[in-house]
């Protein structure tokens, strides 16, 4: 089996060389400077409680997670990861949204053609648009389910009352984000769904007409509404929701982490 | 009892020895040895001949001093200073703190303290009215005019015995975030990405004809998350379905849940009513949304999706009842 032996020898040599190269790279000054102490990608990382703490403590993730969490909080069956998935969907929507922004002009004469071109002319354009749309629907769903999960666990009780309020605001902002994106394709579905939706805003007592006027930039859906919804959708509402998300995540930690088991 | 540092103990003993006219070593031995420090310090406050009053727990007095700043912020301070003829000099700082504190203490502690302090200086008329005024003469008690500052310092030592902030952290069963939580999250993230990718490959997002202001589609429907409301609008006045339900119940009502639900328990068995209400809300909104999405056809009239088809463009590629 000379052939087989030769292959094994080659494999071994390749493996050896790869390990050597990886060690060189991981030991280089540049990589050393990028990775903070305790990073699992650092050369010579060993799995110890100290290093496990360092992974979180010396990491940008320290702002999201504490070094240690309650054991029951890790169970998937407790949270179903709904809050985390909502946040992840938000990130995914931001990424796909930025991609879409490259190919979209929020004017009445170009919007529809641009969306159409996404499906035909742009590489992965159709896929990214689909991901953005279904992801948005999913996010409304996960945020809502997250709220239901929190309610059924009674996790809004002291000291977490205010974080529940922040959460309700986040749900509202999620709905508004989704709704403002609905108009952008500028097709019949978008136009009339937004017409129906904003008609409801007109029933707000006292300020009804004003609210509707501010939303639509006029008395009915026009080209100006498209620009208004676009700015709301890509700039204003994401800006607001990120602030509220920061408060939300921060309060989760400050209020004692995830709530106790039932 | 927390260990008091040697030098603090010594300083305290020196002051006490000076006040009582005893040798320092004896006082120090007394403080360290046979008697606990709190017990030993009492002669400094009361005159040497005083019989210790049974039932007066020294720790109670310590408690009173400790709690002085945080309970009543001395509303009574001027009052106790007035009635006593043998009133201490105003410079005595311990006094205004002690007086209101003793008042806020349970009656037993305050009276016990008072009785003891009463003996050396007979109280003037009107003293019995307030327990605080009974306590008040205490600073006069040391016979040889011990310097006030020294005593205050000694009390500080006692306060140190119990931390002001009581750390109540209970040991919890915890695991490292890395890798236990991070791995879970990463898997969830991958699953979600995979799911969304597959969904997006299979299902095409709807894109109808270009927007046309002159052509109203029949029916026109809101996005699905507002279709429950649109469904409500077909039953009720817009003022109710369009305003009251979404803003008052939907928004303000939900924000107020933690402030309305005063039940501290998180056990499902203790929260039957809350869970019932929320489940009712869930079922109601789900029903309304499904009705609005699937069972509303031309003119937003009731229709069966299997008979008339689905009038909801987001779902057109998803569900096919009729070909």
List keywords for this structure.
heterodimer; A: 262 residues; mainly alpha; flat; B: 323 residues
Dominant shape of chain A: flat
Distance separating the two termini of chain A: 64 Å
The helix-and-strand class of chain A reads mainly alpha
Work out the helicity level of chain A. over 70%
Q: Care to describe what's here?
A:
The complex is a heterodimer of chains A (262) and B (323). Chain A is an all-alpha fold and 262 residues long. Chain A has twelve helices and one strand; from the N terminus they run αααβααααααααα. Chain A has helices spanning 2-27, 29-34, 49-57, 71-74, 76-79, 82-101, 111-120, 125-152, 161-182, 188-201, 208-216, 223-254, and one strand spanning 68-70. The longest helix of chain A is centred in the last third of the chain and has 32 residues, at 223-254. Chain A starts with a helix and ends in an 8-residue tail after the last helix. Chain B is 54% helix and 1% strand. Chain B has 15 helices and one strand. The longest helix of chain B is centred in the middle third of the chain and has 26 residues, at 177-202. The N and C termini of chain B lie far apart (85 Å). Classes of the chains: A mainly alpha (262), B mainly alpha (323). The interface between A and B is large, with 82 and 72 residues.
